[in-house]
Amino acid sequence: MAEPRLLHNRFGTKIITVEVDQNPARQTFTVHENLIRKSSAFFEAALGRGWTEARDRVVKLPEYSARAFELYMNWLYTSRPHYKDPHGMSLAEAESSWCDLLESYLLGDYLQDANFKDITIDSMLRWMHDCEVKSCHIPAIFSVKTYERTGDGSPLRTLLVGFSAWSLYMAFIKSLEDIESRIECPRLFLRDLVSRVANIARERTQPSSPYGQHNGTCHYHCHGKGPCYKAEDATL
């Protein structure tokens, strides 16, 4: 039976310091240099090319949260994700767990650690599946951060857009559950629905109720500029 490998054989003996976040939330971590350089192209470059970080043995990441780096460290040493399961959480707690996932992915993107990004994406997918029953949603502020800190073609962008579109669609489907027979929406209806949502987003205005138009329900009538039937009968 082969003997287990000693930790110093697996990770080496050199330690580096990583300072994360900014005061007053700044925290300091120590990590085995060989381990993190093998996983992160950023750390490989920072510690292997004569940069200041290699001389001082300190790498600073002021734009990223200590919580995200803690999750990254836990993954480095265990090869397992360490995110909170949203089952049993309140809505606010579930959204906080999503924030951890988002911050972790953005950190992994900056560190150029493809494996960590992939496992974080998988954790996001599990979060989405688990939150389906809870009717959780992803606050719009997270899309702002995603698009500010990722580029075109980012898998995170693709996932976020796909989930948001699906959530919109599922909300509509659920509204049909009280109808006895299933309804397959016409493609033209879906086209018009998407067009309307796009217009609302472009105008950045809250849509009014269909029954609250400023010019009354005539907005939906066929008489055009002609008189409305209600004008001909004062009792209506």
TrEMBL record:
Protein origin, superkingdom: Eukaryota
Residue ranges of every copy of the BTB domain listed in the record: 14-85
Protein name, per record: BTB domain-containing protein
The species this protein was found in: Lophiotrema nucula
